[in-house]
Amino acid sequence: MSPGSSSREREAFRTLLEAVRRRVDDRLPTWLAPKVEAANAVSAEVGAVAEAVTALALRGGKRMRPALLAAAYDAFGGGDVAAVELPMVAIELLQVYLLVHDDWMDDDDVRRGGPTVHVALRARFGSKSLGDAAAILAGDLASGFAQDALFATPLPADRVLRAARAYATLQEEVVCGQLAEMQAATLVRSPAPTVETIHALKTASYTVTGPLAMGALLAGADDTAAARLGRFGRPLGVAFQLRDDLLGTFGDPSATGKPVGNDIRQGKRTALVAEMRGDSKAEALLAKVLGRTDATDADVAEVVCAMETTGARARVEARVNELVEEARRGLQALALPDGPARDALYGAAWALAARST
Predict the structure, then answer these.
(1) Which CA distances in Å does 233 have to 166, 180, 334?
(2) Cβ within 8 Å of residue 125, ≥6 positions away
(3) CATH number at residue 258
(4) Is 21's pLDDT higher than 90?
(5) How far is residue 100's CA from residue 106's CA, in Å, rounded to a whole number?
(6) CA 343 to CA 9: how far, in whole Å?
(7) What is the pLDDT of residues 229-248, one digit of tens each?
(8) Structural contact between residues 300 and 289, judged by C-beta atoms closer than 8 angstroms
(9) Whole-angstrom distance, CA of residue 330 vs CA of residue 231
(10) How many domains are contained in the chain?
């Protein structure tokens, strides 16, 4: 692959991403406004939950998932991506649903530069238990909003139905991935799923493979063609999450929005942690520090240093590169026609795996 072609591909994805971001940012508030109005008509409390969902949805986000949906739609002959604005809104609202529940499970206070939904609702209702219960329902409400947007798509009903089935599959997979991650975190003594298995279910499904399949099916691709996209999407989605693991420890907090050492203090079994297993000194250090919310900065720094000296960081970086190449080979096998959409998909492989935020 020549440097010129990779540059062209990256630019194609950047151009698509910016166009999709504008579309989604314009459409989300108009789609959600009547939802909030209807919720407030029920009661101020119901309205507060809908408003919290809307606040998180409108607080930004990379919009990479809808960009992948749009790229697949175009690559499989769908034409003008204006036709899939509502599915793009749906995939963003699905992410909101997952973030609300994930933040509550992790007891995180901040998301996208503002309070997490459970924190906002605790303050709104003046009660931790009521706020937490409302946050669970807020996630469910976002999921309902997402499904409504998908089914309102102005495309042939059979295409929408097949895309909805893909949506249901990715939702099942991400929940299974979350459960598998919980099993690994609690060190259940049955055979634990690997880090990459968890990443494939929890992250790749709704970040890459699901949006790609939905875009292709909405364009009229058959199930076989959509499934073949998995040879591109699955390794790319795993690479995306491995990069997230790296950024959580070695990224710039001002860019990532994540405090250094947060993953270590929360006890997350990231790929970096998995790569330290088998080294007796590293394992002793992890046993002392990993999962300790009161770990000192010096403790965390010692773990981070060990991730370097044991070669864990280098091995995860190498694995990211391997997965990106696997994804690109999977995309080549699809033999898509030349054009901006194909270039954008290739560019996505670079953008998702080499990102700094």
Answers:
(1) 14, 20, 12
(2) 45, 48, 131, 134
(3) 1.10.600.10
(4) yes
(5) 10
(6) 5
(7) 989 999 999 998 899 889 88
(8) yes
(9) 5
(10) 1
For 108-127, what is each residue's pLDDT tens digit? 888 888 999 999 999 999 99
The contacts of residue 150 (CB under 8 Å, 6+ apart) are 86, 87, 90, 160, 163, 164, 167
Question: Domain limits at 48?
Answer: 3-353
Q: Taking a C-beta distance cutoff of 8 angstroms, is the pair 256, 357 a contact?
A: yes
CA distances from residue 285 to 168, 207, 266, 313 in whole angstroms, order as listed: 41, 33, 15, 16
> Residue 323: which region, alpha, beta or left (left: phi > 0; alpha: psi -120 to 50)?
alpha
* pLDDT recorded at residue 356: 67
**Pair of tokens at residue 306:** 């060990």
Both tokens assigned to 277 = 């297993």
SS (H, E, C) the chain: CCHHHHHHHHHHHHHHHHHHHHHHHHHHHHHHHHHHHHHHHHCHHHHHHHHHHHHHHCCCCCCHHHHHHHHHHHHCCCCCHHHHHHHHHHHHHHHHHHHHHHHHHHCCCEECCEECHHHHHHHHHCCHHHHHHHHHHHHHHHHHHHHHHHHCCCCCHHHHHHHHHHHHHHHHHHHHHHHHHHHHHCCCCCCCCCHHHHHHHHHHHHHHHHHHHHHHHHCCCCHHHHHHCHHHHHHHHHHHHHHHHHHHHHCCHHHHCCCCCHHHHHCCCCHHHHHHCCCHHHHHHHHHHCCCCCCCHHHHHHHHHHHHHCCHHHHHHHHHHHHHHHHHHHHHHHCCCCCHHHHHHHHHHHHHHCCCC
